[in-house]
Design a protein that fits this description.
Strand content: 25-35%
GO molecular function: DNA binding
Number of strands: 11
InterPro entries: NAC-dom (IPR003441), NAC_dom_sf (IPR036093)
CATH superfamily: NAC domain
Keywords: DNA-binding, Nucleus, Transcription, Transcription regulation
Shape: globular
Protein name: NAC domain-containing protein
Organism: Malus baccata (Siberian crab apple)
Number of domains: 1
Distance between the termini: 46 Å
CATH class: Mainly Beta
Radius of gyration: 19 Å
């Protein structure tokens, strides 16, 4: 019986390793030169609306590695847990199809369990409550897990009696397993643990009638940024 259990464990481990075989995150994420938002001339109706894996691969990973990103300033660096979301600039909430999302690089706030509810505190008396377990972020149509996504609601007041607000956050972190071993050092490991991308949506903002080009919007950004290793959505 023990032998059978050991065999099953070994088989599962082998299958898990197979999905990462041949995956080169450095190659898949490479862009030659990013641009500033003002330099990116998107056609009318286009919005910055990246998919989850694009957020992790093209922005978060390249930020951690200090490499070029498709754009330099569409995702600002702000410690969002130092503020209540209504304190963030209204002008930041302009992305996605609904023109009501803001994107930030931030320092990851540790989870805190309280009566079985996972929360992340904010600086000014509110807190973010995690809605569910983390989701796996897969690279394109593959089984490669490049990151993880946590979804939260913001509450004003003290936990557990806070008042729910219209702010929803998706927090994305990198899966350290996909980072090539030869680039890992103490500094990179620290950044992997510390950096996240936070997409904050204000659901009270009226949706504007825009065309939702989810994949195509980032492909245009990559085109304007002279992408070097991505063609038609696939690595060369």
């Amino acid at each position: 019986m023990a032998s059978s259990a050991s065999s099953q464990s070994s088989s599962a481990s082998s299958q898990s390793a197979d999905k990462y075989e041949g995956f080169d995150l450095l190659k898949c994420s490479t862009v030659q030169e990013g641009k500033k938002e003002a330099e990116v001339k998107l056609p009318l109706g286009y919005r910055f609306n990246p998919t989850e894996d694009e957020i992790v691969v093209y922005f978060l990973f390249n930020k951690i590695m200090d490499r070029a990103m498709p754009t330099y300033d569409l995702i600002k660096e702000v410690d969002v847990y130092e503020y209540d979301p209504h304190q963030l600039p209204n002008g930041d909430f302009k992305h996605n199809a609904g023109c009501n999302a803001a994107y930030y690089f931030a320092n990851r706030e540790p989870f805190d369990a309280s009566e079985g509810k996972i929360i992340k505190t904010a600086a000014n008396g509110g807190y973010w409550k995690v809605i569910d377990d983390e989701y796996e972020v897969l690279f394109k149509d593959s089984e490669v897990i490049v990151g993880f996504e946590a979804v939260m609601n913001f509450y004003e007041g003290k936990e557990p009696n806070g008042t729910k607000t219209p702010f929803v956050m998706n927090e994305y972190r990198l899966n350290p397993r996909v980072v090539p071993a030869h680039v890992l050092n103490d500094s990179i490991r620290n950044k992997i643990e510390r950096y996240v991308v936070c997409r904050i949506i204000n659901e009270e903002v009226s949706n504007q009638p825009v065309i939702d080009y989810k994949k195509e919007s980032l492909e245009l950004l990559l085109k304007y940024a002279s992408a070097g290793t991505v063609k038609d959505g696939e690595p060369k």
